[in-house]
Amino acid sequence: MGSTDEASSILRRLAEAVVSMDEAAAADAAQDALRCGLDPYLAISEGLSAGMREVNDLYERGEYFVPEVLLCSDAMNVGIEILKPHVKSAQRAVSVSVILGVVEGDIHDLGKNIVRIMLDAAGFDVLDLGRDVGAETFVEEARRVGTGIIGLSTLMSTTMDGMGEVTQGLLQAGLRDRFAVMIGGGPTSPEFARKIGADAHGATAKDAVELARKLARRLSCTKTG
Q1: The domain 4-87 belongs to what CATH superfamily?
Q2: pLDDT tens digits for the chain (225 residues)?
Q3: What's this model's pTM, rounded to 2 decimal places?
Q4: Ranges for all domains in the chain classified under CATH 3.40.50.280
Q5: Which residues, other chains included, contact 199 with Cβ-Cβ below 8 Å and sequence gap of 6+?
């Protein structure tokens, strides 16, 4: 692997390529990451995803709008497509499905999309239900999958109650003990997660991956216990 300075430079270039909507720069930086032996997962999580977090901040401040965000996403995806096949097999051997979606009434899915990419790169089988998803749809998908993790997202305080409707729906369907539920999004908190009976709360996409790994281990122990 190259020097620490070289690795830091590549991570910075990956992030800047996303923020500047530059697909060619993202591809070049991703190839350089592979050439210098930088961990591809680190390149995604601390390079491309870091850039997308900055894009999200720009969007929230009204400096970027939907067209810019979409172009930034395109640049990020170019880098991910180069790096993802090289993610270590040990990181990709996760036998747990994650059902992911933005709860009903909210169409803000940028954060959810970053989480999906990070989970996918970490080896999870991600079932993305999209945005504005009703509680009954989450429950129906849970019934079909059988066991796993459900990830709920919202950026609106007015739709937060939809997360509680999902946990209640799982209880009523007799599925709650077969699924771990994690939540995230601007107005959410660990206290709110406890209030609605969710298992975990994550503030960032990186948090979501670490939580999903912990929850996956817990589910595996439950299966074998």
Answers
A1: Methionine synthase domain (1.10.1240.10)
A2: 557 889 999 999 999 999 999 999 999 999 999 999 999 988 988 999 889 889 888 987 899 988 998 899 899 989 988 998 887 654 555 678 999 999 999 988 878 888 888 888 788 889 999 999 999 999 999 999 999 999 999 988 999 999 999 999 999 999 999 999 999 988 999 999 999 999 999 988 888 989 999 999 888 876 655
A3: 0.76
A4: 90-224
A5: 180, 181, 182, 193, 215
